[in-house]
C-alpha cells in the first residue's frame, strides 16, 4: 500500500482532499481545494507514536506534514481522525505498517509541547500555564486579535459586522447585563489586555479593576489605559484573582477565565467572587463549555500540551448549578456558540494576513500551532462540540434582586 493511500485511510479523508507523500504516491482528486502533503517518514512516525489529534498536530507543527489551502476546510474533512471506521482486517495491516515506521524512525515530541510542574491548579502551576499561552508576544496577539485586543468571543449584531464592532458589542452587552452606571465599582477577573476594564470606564464612568496572571497583558493594558486617558477610573494588576483584597464591588465580570480554573476548583472560585460582590451586585460569567455535563472536563492532547495547559471545560448546567449553590440567583443565560465560530474565523483571517510577520516574531512552529488551534476551535463551535455561555447571577439583598422586570439588554 502506498503512503498517500495509507494516510488517506487513517484520517478518513473525504473526497475534497488530495493527499501526496514523499514516496511519490497520491490519492484523492487533483482539483481538490485542500492538499495534505506527507513530506517525510517522520510524519507517519508521529502518527504511529500518538494516533489521533496529537500525532497529527506533532507532524504539522514540525513541518513534516503540510496543509495547503484552508486549514479549517481540511480539518472539517478529517474530523473523524481515527482508525475506527476501517475494517478490522485492513486496520491490522495499517497498524503493522505504522508500527514498522515507528521502529525505524523514532521521534520525540516537538519542543513546543509544554510540561507543567507542581500541583494541578495551584497558584504556581496556574502561573506557568498562563505564561505559556499569553506571555508570548503582545505584537503577535495584536496581529491576530486586531485593535480591540479582545481574546474572547465577540457578539455579532449582524453577519456583516466587523470584528471590532462585534467586540465592542460584546463588552457593551456585558456592561448592560451587569447594569453598570457611573460611579459603580467593577472587578474584571482574568481581564486579558483590559478591554472590558477600559470599556466600563470609558463608556459608563465606572471605576474598574482588572486582574490577570499574565505579566505581558498587565503591562500592555496599563499603557493602553494611560494612553486612553482613563487612569483615574481604570487599573489592571498583575495578580491572581484569589489575591484581590478589595470587596464590595457593584459588579464582577469573568470573561474567559473559568476555562483555566479547573473543575475541582470551581466551587471555591464562585465562593470567592460571591464574597467580593456586594448584596444586589451582579456576576456575569462568560466561558467556553462542553455541550453537556456528560463529557470529561480535561481537554484533548493537542490543546493541553500546545495551547491551554490544564484547561478544563464543563457543561453549562454545571456552571449554572454551581453559581446557584454558591448563593447567586441565576437570572439569565444564553449560548453564543455561533458568535465564537465567527470570531475565530476573523482571527484566522488576521493570522493569515500577517503570516510572514508572525513567523518572524514567534517562529514557524508556534505560528503553526496557532493556525491549527484557531481552525480546530472554529470547527468545534461549528459542530457543537463546544459552546460559549454567558450566565448572569445576582447576590440577593435579603430577598431583593434589584433586577429589572424584563431584561433591559435585549432591547
Automatic annotation (TrEMBL):
Keywords for the protein's UniProt record, in alphabetical order: Lipid metabolism, Methyltransferase, S-adenosyl-L-methionine, Transferase
Species lineage: Bacteria, Bacillati, Actinomycetota, Actinomycetes, Pseudonocardiales
Stored Pfam families: CMAS
Keyword Ribosomal protein (UniProt): no
Provenance organism: Lentzea tibetensis
InterPro entries per UniProt: CFA/CMAS (IPR050723), CMAS (IPR003333), SAM-dependent_MTases_sf (IPR029063)
Protein name: Class I SAM-dependent methyltransferase
Gene Ontology annotations of biological process type: lipid biosynthetic process; methylation
A GO MF label: methyltransferase activity
Family to which the UniProt record says this protein belongs: Belongs to the CFA/CMAS family.
